[in-house]
């Protein structure tokens, strides 16, 4: 997915604010903007999401879907699987 983006900007390491997306996407930048996520334990990205102008109008930019060859699981503090869309 990322290799095909050509001219792109990848953001990671912290939450990307919708206001930052708006500033970039509403300006002269004409490439793709990707929000990357990866916990410190793996020292690299494991999910990616292409942020669009529509996403920049929302309250949260998604962290995206797992990259090829990656499995992602959301666990509770007790290390039990959390249901899709679930929370504590």
Describe what this molecule looks like in 3D:
With 88 residues, this protein is α+β, with helices and mostly antiparallel strands. It has one domain (2-66). It is built from 2 helices and 4 strands, in the order E-H-E-E-H-E. The protein has helices at residues 18-25, 53-56; strands spanning 8-11, 32-37, 47-51, 65-66. The protein has a 4-stranded mixed sheet with strand order 1-2-3-4. The radius of gyration is 14 Å and the shape is globular. Residues 1-5 have low confidence and may be disordered.
Quick description:
This is AMP-dependent synthetase/ligase domain-containing protein. InterPro entries: AMP-dep_synth/lig_dom (IPR000873), ANL_N_sf (IPR042099). By secondary structure, the protein is α+β, with helices and mostly antiparallel strands.
Low-confidence stretches: 1-5
Q: What is the residue-mean pLDDT, rounded to a whole number? A: 81
End-to-end Cα distance, whole Å, is 32 Å
Q: Which sequence of SSEs, written as H and E, runs from N to C?
A: EHEEHE
Number of helices: 2
Number of strands: 4
Cα-atom Rg, whole angstroms? Answer: 14 Å
Strand content of the residues, in percent?
15-25%
Structurally, how many domains make up the residues?
1
Strand order across the biggest sheet?
1-2-3-4
Class by SSE composition: alpha+beta
Task: Record keyword descriptors for this entry.
alpha+beta; 2 helices; single chain; 4 strands; ANL_N_sf; AMP-dep_synth/lig_dom; 88 residues; phosphopantetheine binding; 4-stranded mixed beta sheet
